[in-house]
Amino acid sequence: MDLTIRPARPEDAAAIAEFTTDTFEWGDYISDVLPHWLDADDGCVMVAVDNNDIAVGLGRGQMLSASEMWLQGARVSEPWRRRGVASAIGGALIDWATGRGAKVARLLTEGWNEAAQGQVEKSGFRRSSDWVVGARPIADSEPATTGNGGQRAKAKRRLEVAHSSEAVPAWVSWRSGPLVAPARGLHVDGWRWWQLTDHHLIAAGKAGRLWSSRAGWVVTRRDEGTLYADWLECGPDDSDDMVRSIVDLAVETHADYLRITVPAVDWLVAAMERSGCEIHPMYIYELAL
Is 4-102 CATH 3.40.50.300? Predict the structure, then answer.
């Protein structure tokens, strides 16, 4: 491989834009976030450059805690794919992270992306947990669900904003409940997975993003018209009511779309399907450093 791996620079932006513009059907986000990535003190962007010092691949690593590194944004120009470029970039990012005390590296692949899964497995990563996103549009007309063929059933228990004092009880409940093991102790925060502590839930409570009902707790965030439920705590008997209450919250807050991210446990997936969600599998891979 006749390439050099080095830290990205602002002048690489134009070359990066050329091979990331049409990554997905909807485009790509790399050009939008690249300036922020380059300025962030907790992250590093590495590029692979050809003999003319033109970027043909990139990836980003971010320290999420003193010991956890998250890998994201791996992209390689079409002519350079299947030549070990992504693995070389990943190796450089791992070296960067271990120099800062990282003990584990993690990344996400979509369930359909077998090529990416094969590439990271060859690099020594192992699939550590399975997750799903339950996604559905929100409409004032309350569309019929696949579960009962009728109008959407509202939850028996309405979600209310929880005081930050409820954060520790929520965390303790989760730590002893049925979701911590399949989650491997992780939670999602802005499409990054890392170990959940009570401090994360306390911060969510102080920001008004922790909600509770008799069914359990949920942490949400809003990005434009989408309501994201990034963490929840409930049991099998309360799963239908919890998911319905999240849908109700999306309706009440006039969201256009809802995305619920949870570990891939059968009873929670079934509850989301009964509430009209389309299920998208995802896998978390990790590598001990």
Answer: no
CATH class of 131-282: alpha beta
Do 4-102 and 131-282 show the same overall fold? Answer: yes
**SS3 sequence of the chain:** CCCEEEECCHHHHHHHHHHHCCCECCECCHHHHHHHHHHCCCEEEEEEECCCCCEEEEEEEEECCCCEEEEEEEEECHHHCCCCHHHHHHHHHHHHHHCCCCCEEEEEEECCCHHHHHHHHHCCCEEEEEEEEEEEECCCCCCCCCCCCCCCCCCCCCCEECCHHHHHHHHHHHHCCCCHHHHCCEEECCCCEEECCHHHHHHHHHCCCEEEECCEEEEEEEECCEEEEEEEECCHHHHHHHHHHHHHHHHHCCCCEEEEEEECCHHHHHHHHHCCCEEEEEEEEEEEC
Q: Where are the domains of the chain?
A: 4-102, 131-282
pLDDT at 228: 97
pLDDT in tens, 5-64: 999 999 999 999 999 986 666 667 888 899 999 999 999 999 999 999 999 999 999 999
pTM: 0.89
Q: Using one digit for the tens of pLDDT, what is the confidence trace for 65-96?
A: 999 999 999 999 988 988 889 999 999 999 99
Q: What is the pLDDT of residues 179-195, one digit of tens each?
A: 999 999 999 998 899 99
pLDDT on residue 157: 77
